[in-house]
Amino acid sequence: MIFGGTAILFLAMSLSALWHLRWLGRLPSLDTLTPPDGTRSQDTGPIRCSVVIAARDEEARIEGTIRHLLVQRGVEAEFIVVDDRSADRTGEILRRIAQEDARLKVQRVEVLPDGWLGKCHACHVGATAATGDWILFTDADCWLKPDVIERAVRVAEREVADHVTLVPGTVLESRATRGWHLLFLTSLLGWFSGVNRDRPKSYVGIGAFNLVRAEAYRQCGGYETLRLTVVDDIKLGLLLRRAGKRSRGYLGVDDVECHWGTTVGNMVKIMEKNYFAALDFRLGLVVAGSLAVTGVLGILVTGLLSGTLAGVAAGISPFFLAVPAGILARRVGWAWPCALFVPLMIPVFLYALFNSTYTALRQGGIRWRDTFYPLSILRAGNVK
């Protein structure tokens, strides 16, 4: 009975993922978004967008990011980079590029005010200076295709949406790391499906590409409300949903590429500050979820060792997840065998959650970009 129930659980998860996959695709091409007469669906003049980046000690990547942004076409763009207390050459590089192109505006934060996370404050500073009709929040290590902002705005206009977010593609060589990324994408399917179907309580946001109508951003409270929220990108989507705004989400693939986490170990380390925060620092939820997953993993191992048909069927049932993951792999341009690593990443995901929780509790808070934030303050200021 237990073995059969476990197999049914993974089958149900896979079928659910396949259903949600219907609602997650790539950002439409410009050709499909342009009417035959070449006009926009809401032709109210040129697209004016302010691109906001919070940067701290990004000398290795910031120039490539900015150079990719400066070739955006189809929009009247300004690029606001907030140098958040960098101790390396980030500010020097930005000032040099700003001398070449007046569209780049550099702001420097010398001291972080009390009651703010560094990134949230930098995004707030950048958004306050924004003059565009749209604000794009992106990261200092992301590369954007030259037409992606125009396409995202046109999609928003077509869908009558105030928010468009893209989950970034990644440049990964290891099949195991691709398996991690595919499991991560699979875990987001319900979120993206929900916003794309306008489900009332659904929301999502990805820091690599969060494009929001400026008016909607200000109406929902923006980063001033999110000042102590670690997973600020996701919670921006929550604020917009609460304000009655419509969101749309897509796969970024090569439209938005994020250069981080080249190994599974890197991914676990990167997620150290995120996973406990994503559960709103609720230890009880972490414990309950961890016990449940550990119990299921125990059943899988017991099943494989039992030698019975039911036990072996239960033991291999996680590979049902390779079917939706294989479809995702093809959509992001990877060979489908990467999906076979997805079931093997489930224990790693559990470890990443445990590591995130344990580290935060042991430290009494989160260390993010060389700044320590006490857990008591994060819990008190977290947007739920």
Describe this structure in words.
With 384 residues, the protein is α/β, with parallel strands linked by helices. It folds into 2 domains: 122 residues, no CATH class; 240 residues, Spore Coat Polysaccharide Biosynthesis Protein SpsA, Chain A, CATH 3.90.550. It contains 17 helices and 10 strands. The strands form 2 sheets. Strands 3-2-1-4-7-6-8-5 form an 8-stranded mixed β-sheet, sandwiched between helices. Strands 9-10 form a two-stranded antiparallel sheet. The two termini are 38 Å apart.
Summarize, please.
With 384 residues, this protein is α/β, with parallel strands linked by helices. The chain is built from 17 helices and ten strands.
What number is the mean pLDDT?
A: 94
**Radius of gyration over alpha carbons?**
22 Å
Low-confidence stretches: none
Specify the biggest β-sheet. 8 strands, mixed
Task: Tell me the total number of β-strands.
Answer: 10
CATH topology of the largest domain: Spore Coat Polysaccharide Biosynthesis Protein SpsA, Chain A
In total, how many domains does the architecture comprise? 2
- The multimeric state of the shown protein is single chain
Q: What are the main properties of this structure?
A:
384 residues; alpha/beta; Spore Coat Polysaccharide Biosynthesis Protein SpsA, Chain A; globular
Topology of this protein?
Blueprint: H1 2-21, H2 30-33, E1 48-55, H3 62-70, E2 76-84, H4 90-100, E3 104-109, H5 118-129, E4 134-138, E5 142-144, H6 148-159, E6 163-170, H7 175-196, E7 210-213, H8 214-220, H9 222-225, H10 232-242, E8 247-258, H11 264-270, H12 275-278, H13 283-306, H14 309-316, H15 322-331, H16 346-363, E9 365-368, E10 371-374, H17 375-381
Parallel strand pairs: 1-2, 1-4, 2-3, 6-8
Antiparallel strand pairs: 4-7, 5-8, 6-7, 9-10
Helix pairs in contact: 1-14, 1-15, 7-15, 13-14, 13-16
